[in-house]
Design goal:
- The structure is a single chain.
- With about 160 residues, the chain is α+β, with helices and mostly antiparallel strands.
- It contains three helices and eleven strands, in the order H-E-E-H-H-E-E-E-E-E-E-E-E-E.
- A hairpin with a 2-residue loop joins strand 9 and strand 10.
Length: about 160
């Protein structure tokens, strides 16, 4: 039964990744949510081709691959403060002031030891904002909400890109 649940969550994640819903732009494109800064958000998470099962990146991998295309802590805060958020059973649907939306899947995360956790129930995304030499800011969520926190850079989190 436990194996079936784990497989179901993996399939759910794979089936939702890159798919949009009503009000969303075509998968893999940037969408203007009508934010005050003008920041556009990618409609899908980035894939880590070096990882077989999950598309998680350490902070260093994310910075090396995407640099300033990673949202800053400030851009994540803008998304939190200016958009409406609703749990979609597999992640959050984020609707901007102009009615356009993106989906942030509950992809889980990879621990520093390589173990994968919380697929289907929570999500973690890197920001580009470091905090000291060992930590960086990330956005996290579960079905009951989320926010920004400081965490070790060795964790594997999802990556969503932005465009100014």
């Amino acid at each position: 039964m436990l194996c079936l649940l784990a497989v179901s969550m993996i399939v759910l994640y794979a089936c939702t990744k890159g798919r949009g819903g009503k009000g969303e732009e075509v998968a893999g494109k940037y969408v203007d949510l009508g934010l005050s800064s003008g920041t556009k958000w990618m409609t899908v998470d980035e894939e880590n081709t070096a990882v077989v099962e999950y598309d998680f990146f350490t902070y260093e991998e994310a910075i090396a691959a995407y640099g300033d295309k990673l949202p800053s802590r400030k851009q994540w805060m803008e998304l939190v403060n200016e958009c409406s958020w609703s749990w979609a059973g597999m992640g959050y649907k984020v609707v901007g002031p102009n009615g356009k939306s993106i989906l942030l899947p509950a992809a889980g995360y990879r621990g520093c030891d390589g173990s994968v956790h919380c697929v289907g129930s929570s999500g973690d995304y890197w920001s580009s904002t470091p905090n000291g030499s060992d930590d960086a800011w990330n956005f996290f969520f579960g079905s009951d909400g989320g926010g920004l926190r400081n965490t070790y850079r060795c964790y594997g989190y999802s990556v969503r890109l932005v465009q100014d």
